[in-house]
Amino acid sequence: MEKLNTFPNLETKRLRLRKLEEADYEHIIYLRSDAEVNRFVQRPKAENREDALAFIERISLEFLTGKSIYWVITQKNANEMLGSICLWNFSEDGTTAELGYDLAPTVQGRGFMDEAMKRIVKFGFEEGKFQKIEAFTQKNNLPSIKLLKKNHFELKPLRSDPENALNLIFELSEKTYLSFGLKGK
Q1: What Pfam families does this protein map onto (predicted)?
Q2: Reported pTM
């Protein structure tokens, strides 16, 4: 993917997907430290303001250097961070990205992540020009698996995550994206 000069703020029917800001640090602490949010994820915690601000700075730098795009998920009528969704871990040839996401348990089950995922997948294939988007999710994270399958991601049972043996790997190819008539939605 080519490095972007400006951050791609995006919208859906109910959501605004915007750039992460320093003012979001309390939500970062929550999302990266809460036991329920992180039950199926192995990642560094952000347990205090300094950790959260360092994470925000790293995310900002990764966008500026073309290594990832991290969106804050908010409702259109509010600025409060409900969760995040990102494209990251780009392949060297720029044809593949990994999709990552999290959502506060208090707003799960409302279709927010499905709505955000559809918009980010569209961005990834149509604007990012990726040929494949991957998602790694823990085998016991049934809501995540259901969400990926609903969005036409296919389980790749012969692939494994060397960093986490509990992870399953799903892929969505541009060809599958186009074949389901998802373009433009």
Answers
A1: Acetyltransf_3
A2: 0.93
Six-digit token pair at 158?
């012969």
C-alpha–C-alpha distance, residues 19 and 11, integer Å: 12
How far CA 18 is from CA of 8, 45, 76, in Å, comes to 8, 22, 10
The H-or-E segment that residue 136 falls in is: strand 132-138
In a domain, 1, yes or no: no
**Amino acid, res. 58:** R
Number of domains in the chain: 1
Structural domain contains residue 74: yes
Give CA separation, 108 vs 30, 61, 69, in Å: 15, 29, 22
pLDDT tens-place string over residues 44-70: 889 899 999 999 999 999 999 999 999
